[in-house]
Every structure is written in structure tokens, then in C-alpha cells.
Amino acid sequence: MEKYRSQVRMLALILMLALVSSLALAACAQSQPAAPAAKSAEQAAQPAKTTTSPLKIGFVASLSGFGAPMSEFPVQAFDLAVKDVNDGNIAGRQVTGVKVDDATDPKVANEVCTRLVKDEKVSSIVVFASGASRAACLPIAEAAGIPLIYAAGTEPGIKSPSWFSAGESSPQQVAPLVDYYIEKGAKSFFLFGEDYVYPQTGVDFMQKYVPKKGGKVAGSDFVPMGTTEYSPVIAKIVQTGADTLLQMTAGSDEIALIKQLRASPGTQNVGIGSTNLIAATQQALGNLSKGVVVSFSYIDAIKSAENDKFKAALKAQYGSKAAVPTHFGAMVYDAVNLVSLAAKKANSSDGKALIGALHEVSFTGPRGEIKFGSDGYATLPIFVGQAGGDGTYTILKSHPKVDLTEILK
Description:
Layout: H1 2-20, H2 41-45, E1 55-61, H3 68-87, E2 95-101, H4 109-118, E3 124-127, H5 131-144, E4 148-150, E5 163-165, H6 170-183, E6 188-194, H7 197-212, E7 216-223, H8 231-240, E8 244-248, H9 251-262, E9 271-274, H10 279-285, E10 293-296, H11 305-318, H12 327-346, H13 351-358, E11 362-364, E12 369-372, E13 378-387, E14 393-402, H14 404-407
Parallel strand pairs: 1-2, 1-3, 3-4, 4-5, 6-7, 6-8, 8-9, 9-10
Antiparallel strand pairs: 10-13, 11-12, 12-13, 13-14
């Protein structure tokens, strides 16, 4: 239970850091020397070098500090992906991973991203961190001519030749939620989120999308992150007569919102849709979360050979130490596979060659098929699921290919 509480606290912290500054990379692996030297234990564990240049992938995660609990599964997924691509020779060359620790300190983002590029000489960077960290690292990747693959939810409209998003954008995540409730007969929606860019772009999109689908926007509101008292918002929901709340809060904020909503008169029949109700939040809420409808690009209940293989490999690799699966870890796993496939397609580990090839390759993994569009945003599956109140989900609807460009038309 403490693991779940830690993950809930961390989810809120990650989102808060998106408001104020950059999470980042602090090197935790030593730079490899340019000249031949005695192999370290880490180097000895890597597959034998081939005649082709190796593919070196940097990975940003919080290995210490408050961010560590939320990063546990993404880190395991990264290590597993590196092992799998080497075992299967997916890249056509040796792949090495350089995990770096931001220590949950936004001040070091620019410094350590520069170090990844200049000292570690990575061919690409996979980032699981806040949008502020992404914003700090993206210009560095662009200047170096290497791809940056973001493994978290993001807003639309980011433009850079180095930009790739392996996670769902806010419109890709909320559109299937709206569709589900409209199909189930919902008429009137209250749209709500925390006051930073991801919920802002999600709510703004829903303001237009709900009427387009035949529903009515009864009202909308935002609150600062860290809000603990939701009675003013709940009063608005009741006053508008909305039958459905589509909300974009997370962690301890989402826990407070749902607890207070469920305890308020006149709200017992209000449906709740969520973009952030991860298993840890379910565990913290217990039965109060039962019936909440979520929208993610990965739910561990997905029935596919690829997901079965993924979960079996995690169990074989980590046993009882395997972390609770999240969509974030699945994004990281897919990102490593995609850049490895790009290296094979380009027959190169050069950053510019990888950028071109990433637009051409696709990967079918635990989430389904993932393919980057010309804008760097992935067309990917989205699963609408219902929370069981115990950390599990029942999949209600599957959308195999959700294309951001098509949604925004």
C-alpha cells in the first residue's frame, strides 16, 4: 500500500513540476572512454560489439528523490527493452542504454541534457519527465541533430525536427472518453482540470468536441495544482445539472476531488471520466474509484500476444520485484524499440538518419501498433476502461489507431 501511496504522491509532483520548471537528467553512468580500455562490469554484460557503430540511447528518469516511485516501472521497461532489442538484434547493432538521474531537481535539466549529448554522445534521448524537462532538453537534442522521444502525455502543437511523442496527446486521450459517454447516452458535460498546459489543452479541445458529437458543455473550470477543497467546483457541477464530469486531475488532487464529490448530495449519479486514474490512485480511493472511466494508451488487461509476452518477460526479468505496470512504462518500452528499428532501417546510428527513419518505421508491442506521423506525434491505440476499485480495469472500448491529425480536423 505504501508503494501505491508513493506513486500517487509522485504523479502529483510530476505534474506540478510541469508548471514551474524543468525536470532533467543527471548522469548516473560514467562516460565511455574514446580509447580502448579494460571493460567495466556494465560493459562486460553488454552483447559483443559488431563492426557497425553502436546505438546509444539516453534515458531521463528520476532514480532518486521524490520522483523515484513513479519512475520504477519506466526504468524496468527501459532495461527490458534494451535487453529485448539486443536479444533479437532489432537494431542490427549493439544497443546500450544510459540511464540518468535528475534527482527530481528541475534546476539541472539543461546542464545534464547537455552532458548526455556532449559527454555520453547518445544517438537519441527518451524522456519520462515533466513537460518542462522536455522543453529544456528538446533544443539541446535539436542542436545536436538527434531525436528526442517523449514518453508521457503531452499537448499538441510542438514543432521540432527532433520531436517525437510516444505517448498520447491530450486530444487523443479525451476524445475517446467523450465518444464513450455520448454512446452511453450522456447529454451534459462539466469539464474540469488543473491549471497547467495538458489539462488546458484537453479542456479546450473538449469545449469544441463535445458539441460536435451532440453533447452539451454545461460548464468548465480549472483549479491550481495542490487544491484540497473542491466544494466550489462541486457546487457548480450540481448547479449546472451535468450528468458527466470529465476531469483532468491527478494524484492526491484527484483523490480529494473524488472523495468530496462522492460525499456530496446530488452527485451520486454523476459519471466520472478521468485521464489520470492510475492503479495507485485506485488503491488509495478503494471502492470510491469503482466505476470511474479512464482513457489510456495502455492498460495491463489488454488481451494480445504482444502484451502477454511483455508481461511474461517482466515477470521473468524482475520476479516479485516487478513494478505495477503503467502506460508510462509501456511508452518507454515502445520508444526504445522504435529507435532501434529506425537504426536498422537507416543502417546507421547517426542522429539525423534516425530522425528520418523514425517517420518510416512502426512497432507492434504491448499497446498495439505505434507509428509516428510527419509531425512526430504517434498514431496509437487508446483503451477506454472502467476502474474496479482495486487497481484493476475492465476494457470497455478499444480504438486501435487514434491519429492526432484526424482528431483535430
